[in-house]
Amino acid sequence: MKIQDAKQLVRDFHADLNAATVDSVESVLASYTGDDWHWRGMHPFYEQYGAKDVAGVFYKPVLSSFNTFRRRPDIFFANENSLDGEPGTWVVSMGHFIGLFDEDFVGIPATRKIIMLRYAEFNRVLDNQIVETAMFFDLIHLMHQAGLNPLPPQTGAHLVQPGPATHDGLLYGAQDPQTGRDTLQLINRMIGDIAANSNTDDIELPRDATPQQELERCWHDDMLWWGPDGIGATYTIDRYIVQHQQPFRTQLGSRVFNGHVARLAEGHYGGFFGWANLTLTPLGGYMGLPKGPKADMRVVDIYRRDGDKLAENWIFIDILHFLSMQGLNVLERIAVK
Q: What is the mean pLDDT of residues 132-159?
């Protein structure tokens, strides 16, 4: 029941946030979180502590800009962190926020039209409180909805991205623990295959394995990779290689894996986030941009397993932060004058 209790707490939290106003949101946040609540947000919000700061930096500006702001989750699951870390249960929610874009937001001009803001949120629950949160969202996609194109054309496509093809991503009820363990094992094997000369529990990936050979071990041929705006989504192993893997591996160098903060799975769904996951050096050409100094990628990956392979992957990257470390502040460039 520990996992179910954590799920219910977060569901209640989300329901109360849906009804919150600029005046009430701080008290809503405070009623569910500890005094030293650690909140991580994407650029330009970054790390905050406590309900007052989170409300002032993020939620009050959001509620001032977006009328009737509501969460529409497509995926919801929870479990203990499979990595060494702080105690508690992590609850993951992913989907879109929907609202009417009535006032400018962080320099992005209002449209007075409906918007859908992709999000992924990880909440760590301990002693019936939320003590840690990571909130990822896709501001570049919001810019596109406002008619702005801040970056060169991307290699993939970007859409208002759907939830799982199976429409079964909201795991509000209890799940078979073994199913989640199987999902986590597959995710871990896939992570291992990314590394050169990877050894896994079953077979060794050949040193000279082609990208197709690497991917087909853990992915269905018709995989869906729902990437962030700036990179875009892609479909099938072959097209994923051309539209994401190849640019990522050839146009970014000196890759350092920094690890994950949380990695978990429940049922056929799982995922992780890092702060930062990777440190890389742009070699020129990535996202159509020139060479740059090394920079961090803060990343969320959410997966759906189908049988013994992965079928879908939703990705969030703090691209604005990655670019800001290279001296490019996109929000300043597009700010409403």
A: 91
